[in-house]
Amino acid sequence: MRISHNHPRFISLETRERLVRGFQSGVVVSQGLIAHGRGEAFDYLLGEVTPESSRVATKAAVALLLSAKNPIISVNGNTAALVPRDIVRLSRLIPAGLEVNLFHRSLAREQRIASFLKRNGASQVLGANSSARIRIPGVASPRRSVDAKGIGDADVVLVPLEDGDRAEALRKTGKIVIAIDLNPMSRTSQAATVTIVDNIIRVIPELVRMTLRMKPLSKSRLNAIASSFDNERNLARVMKDMIRYMQGWT
Amino acid sequence: MRISHNHPRFISLETRERLVRGFQSGVVVSQGLIAHGRGEAFDYLLGEVTPESSRVATKAAVALLLSAKNPIISVNGNTAALVPRDIVRLSRLIPAGLEVNLFHRSLAREQRIASFLKRNGASQVLGANSSARIRIPGVASPRRSVDAKGIGDADVVLVPLEDGDRAEALRKTGKIVIAIDLNPMSRTSQAATVTIVDNIIRVIPELVRMTLRMKPLSKSRLNAIASSFDNERNLARVMKDMIRYMQGWT
Asked: Which residue from A minimizes the CA distance to B43?
């Protein structure tokens, strides 16, 4: 077993500071800090770098987002705190709507997050008012409530840092779900149409770059990319990467 | 790949609530919430149960604590919030001193934690005043400052939820370090004399039970148990358990 290990720590430290600032400003809740820590541990098992499997999933995700009739990006507190500019940039590029959707919901926090996104360039943010709400069947948490003009009407939903319940329920309503989740064994990862197992801090900028590159592609080319993607096989690949990382220690 | 998975969630949920209460009362800091999340992810890879390797490490730890001339238990905010009664009970049983030692240090928080431990049965808590401080060489964080009558004078130190810097530095001063850390690859886990890779919520009660059982043993029997323990081999075992857990998913 190795005694010393030059594991990269800089990404997680910078990210952590961003999150703690989000917590101080009321965008992030205490449960969000714990959830972030869980992500950090799985990122550790990736060596804090994007695995090849994640690039393949990102490509499939962009193909689905660009082919969608009504794509929506669901934003929670951690996502807003960690990648505010890039998530707005992605929504403009696709283009896709932005909807605030919280597990620990309060109107004040929804509005705080919507304002924060607007200060980072968003022109419209859904989900930050009490009107035009519908419920997704099968979700027990406050996340069941979605904007009728946003997730309610969407065919493709990008859900970074999602809870398992809702990802499963969104799938059951027939929507295409793209998840960003560092735990490949989570219910969200298992339920999504496409799961990008990687740190959101690397994923969103990569989605922006990939969208710029794939925008000129034809519908049929995009369809081919999306339909050749196999989420189950891809999750098995990333699991093998993590296992290989751990085996390097024994 | 399995689609549904009946992973036990109850331990982590209850533990999480205890931690958030500690945060609300100022015992735990925001960085402690993130650190807890990292632990949760590794606990997930243990299936949230104590592996056999952890029992072996616990036995070696108790042998060292019972043989020590001056054993000390270092307590940070998360430890106090998660297992206040059991850590006090353990200190009485061995007997070992209790010293508050924080990474994010402030006299107010030290005193808050000391009071909290006293409300949970502790008669004396070291480290919660500015006098009689000495520095451990080689530690950059505020944790370098320790109580001269506590960790400063100890031969065996139990350090649950430690930072890697300090565990290494304590080892270099010639002290025997017993770590409790869910990440078997962390610098703390690698540097300690004995590493118990398990959730502190299960470890401390198990240390209490094991101490009750091993107290009647002779010095030579305790020495035999301690010296037959190989931390490197034991960490490799727990890594294999985690790898096996992940392989069950591919």
From this structure: A38
Q: Which of A38, A41, A242 sits opposite B246 (nearest CB)?
A: A242
Global pTM reads 0.91
**pLDDT by residue (tens digit) across A171-219?**
999 999 999 999 999 999 999 999 999 999 999 999 999 999 999 999 9
Tell me the ipTM for this assembly.
Answer: 0.90
CB atoms within 10 A of CB A173: 15
DSSP letter at A234 equals H
Beta strand A176-180 with A156-160 is: parallel
DSSP state for residue B126 in the 8-state scheme = B
Question: Position B121: which residue type?
Answer: G
Q: Which residues contact A165 (CB under 8 A, 6 or more apart)?
A: A138, A139, A140, A141, A143, A187
Q: How far apart are CA A12 and CA B105, in angstroms?
A: 21
CB contact under 8 A, A38 and B41: yes
Across the interface, of B38, B190, B246, the residue whose CB is closest to A40 is: B38
The distance in angstroms from the start CA to the end CA of chain A is 5
> Do the Cβ atoms of B34 and A34 come within 8 Å?
yes
Nearest to B163 by CA among A9, A84, A17: A9
Structure tokens, B89? 């009970």
Cβ separation of A34 and B36 shorter than 8 Å? yes
pLDDT of A109-155, one tens digit each? Answer: 999 999 999 999 999 999 887 666 788 887 777 777 888 888 888 99
Contact criterion met (CB < 8 Å) for A16 and B3:
no
pLDDT (tens digit, 9 = 90+) per residue, B35-73?
Answer: 999 999 999 999 999 999 999 999 999 999 999 999 999
